[in-house]
């Protein structure tokens, strides 16, 4: 059996999404910015795709949603544009991010530091959550931007973006959230939230790779990251990815319309997997379920190296991860485990299982059996597990 449980890294393209995209590769292939009929053949479906994206996050037509190549591009765009618009002039000199943001935020923040920008990295507590009070204590009159992800890619921890946005608005600070792990899992209404910028990628909710977006609230448009054309109202140069936009729109529609039906089933499977794995002694899960997205679990088995567990899982046909796919070749300890203050012998043991609406109970039951056998084998050859104090508990 082959089981895919790495859906926070990427997802299967829904067959309905693929079908919607197919005609726009070789049948309707015109550049939509041209003036002939080959171009106009794409316009109705292209506009429909964009409308579905707006509807999926309940954006106002007066807001801007600009298509990008991915959320990494969108995240870079927000932070770098804030630098040129607000910091380079000397009006502001400070931004705030959490210490567990996606690498595209952390790396860009560190680049900003090299340019003289002051960056505060908000800590998380032992449950993998940030607190609003820590944010309040960090904002100053020189703060230009707060960037806090909606849901963490490794733990699934949901951060209080509604409260953060309200406080940032009160303080006159711009607020951005990376919503990559929120689309299709959490209902989003941008007209009811004080969020200036929101970013996401289609491939995280069963759309195609290579297409994402940046939402900009009316009046908060940023200077372009890419120059050289009048595409997307001059905000983002580059020929439009017509199949990608149509696919992202269809994927958004499917994910949002079925959220009340799909996510309870996903949660039931995730909880079943978690309940069974927590029966293994010296096993720990980060972040309580009520504060997590319904598809995600970051779990540690004391005495079992994460990379070794992945080896056993992969041999059995199971795809999981030790953290962000953007750092999958990095064998350092899991940054979230370090951030919550996990003991040294646990920091290398985290495994992330992330489910989707395509995950089945048979796949989960198979995974439970494989993990149990892998833990027995790996602990049996461990040079340290026999000497490790046994303090079994279900959560860190």
Keywords:
single chain, 396 residues, alpha/beta, Aspartate Aminotransferase, domain 1, Aspartate Aminotransferase, domain 2, 2 domains, seven-stranded mixed beta sheet, three-stranded antiparallel beta sheet, 13 helices, 12 strands, 13% strand
What does this structure look like?
- It is a single chain.
- By secondary structure, the protein is α/β, with parallel strands linked by helices.
- It has 2 domains: 134 residues, Aspartate Aminotransferase, domain 1, CATH 3.90.1150.10; 243 residues, Type I PLP-dependent aspartate aminotransferase-like (Major domain) (Aspartate Aminotransferase, domain 2), CATH 3.40.640.10.
- It is 37% helix and 13% strand.
- The chain is built from 13 helices and 12 strands.
- The protein has a 7-stranded mixed sheet, with helices on both faces. Strands 9-10-12 form a 3-stranded antiparallel sheet. Strands 1-11 form a two-stranded parallel sheet.
- The radius of gyration is 22 Å and the shape is globular.
In summary, what is this structure?
This protein has 396 residues and is of the alpha/beta class.
- Strands in their spatial order, largest beta sheet: 2-8-7-6-5-3-4
Tell me how many strands there are. 12
Low-confidence segments, ≥5 residues, pLDDT <50? none
Q: Tell me, what's the shape?
A: globular
Tally of helical runs: 13
Tally of distinct domains: 2
